Amino acid sequence: MTKISWKPGTMVYPLPPALISSGSLEKPNVMTAAWTGIINSEPPMTYVSIRPMRLSHDIISQTKEFVINLPTVNMVTAVDFCGVKSGRDVNKFEETGLTPIASSNISAPQILQCPVSVECKVVDIKKLGSHDMFMAEIVSVDVDDNFIDADGKFWLEKTGLLAFAHGHYFSLGRNLGSFGFSVNKKRLALMQKMEKVDVMVKERKAIILEKRAEAEERPLPHKSKFAKHKKAIPFEPHTQKFDGKAKFKKHFSPNGQAPAENFYKPKKHSFKPKKA
Ligand SMILES: Cc1cc2nc3c(=O)[nH]c(=O)nc-3n(C[C@H](O)[C@H](O)[C@H](O)COP(=O)(O)O)c2cc1C
Predict the structure, then answer these.
(1) pTM
(2) CB 3.0-4.6 Å disulfide test: which of 13, 41, 49, 111 passes with 69?
(3) What is the 8-class DSSP label of residue 167?
(4) What number of other Cβ atoms are within 10 A of residue 52's Cβ?
């Protein structure tokens, strides 16, 4: 392998194309931001870097509050839309069907359809050049209770989070091991075994039919030690229904048959921020 040296650039990926909500429940705004991440564990702290010309910049400078909402793959059209249209020109909630709901600790609203919403209070604003960095303390983490099992474990990997890398949106791949698995002998042996997987190509329709049958048959018949977790999780991400407006419905509801009364409406549970 030969490495080629490029001029400096923003080549650190993948990142979440987060939906940053701000303002109030009565007058909410949302923008997409990839320049976001964690900067401290105790207290839990985060940042979002925003160009001064954005409406979100004006709002957050004034209110000193924002929410980082993590979107899922079936929200990709809304995510892109919120990253190319300004709240100065359109009501992005109305256009996309995203739903603003109250947060637990701040006045800025969060987004119902996102399985994870991180409530933030700004503690400092650093002018960096093109962007201003809003450093913030995380004051609450709100998660969709559909992904919490009977033991209280939150199955983040089941939510179908969206990733952004080098100008493109991606879904996440396979789970390759948990934190620290490389120094746990048993776990390492298990993970190395799991590396030898056969890849089966299935028609999308066949997968949907299989999953539907599986959902109808719960409790699951197999005896794996994870069966109880599966029982506690009532749906898989691809079955989520979003309350999209007609313009976007075909993207949010891939099977095109989402009767209004069945739209996906998660309840959010609030957690105190935890150290990593
Ligand atoms: C994937 C993606 C990532 C983006 N990341 C950022 C970012 O980190 N910071 C920023 O200022 N703008 C970012 N943008 C652009 C803003 O989302 C966009 O300018 C938006 O229209 C601003 O909305 P507002 O004026 O309603 O605040 C991104 C856009 C996309 C599509």
Answers:
(1) 0.76
(2) 111
(3) T
(4) 11
Query: Which residue, chain included where needed, has tokens 């939906």?
Result: 19
Phi/psi region, residue 239 (left: phi>0; alpha: psi -120 to 50; beta: rest), is alpha
CA of 30 to the centre of ligand 1 (A): 9
47 in Cβ contact with 20 (< 8 Å): no
Task: Tell me how far apart the alpha carbons of residues 30 and 55 are, in angstroms, rounded to a whole number.
Answer: 9
Q: Which of 88, 39, 27 is nearest to 68 (CA)?
A: 39
β-strand partners of 171: 162
Can you name the residues that pair with 126 across neighbouring β-strands? 133
Question: Separation of 215 CA from ligand 1 center, angstroms?
Answer: 37
Q: What is the pLDDT of residues 56-82, one digit of tens each?
A: 999 999 999 999 999 999 999 999 999
CB count in 10 Å sphere of residue 160: 18
d(CA 186, CA 222): 23
Taking the C-alpha atoms of residue 61 and residue 268, their distance in angstroms, rounded to an integer, is: 27
The type of residue at 220 is L
Per-residue pLDDT tens for 152-202?
Answer: 999 999 999 999 999 999 999 988 888 888 888 887 787 777 766 666 667
User: Would you kindly state where each structural domain of the chain is located, as residue ranges?
Assistant: 18-171
Binding pocket residue ranges, ligand 1, CB within 6 Å? 17, 29, 31-35, 49-51, 54-56, 80, 83-88, 131, 164
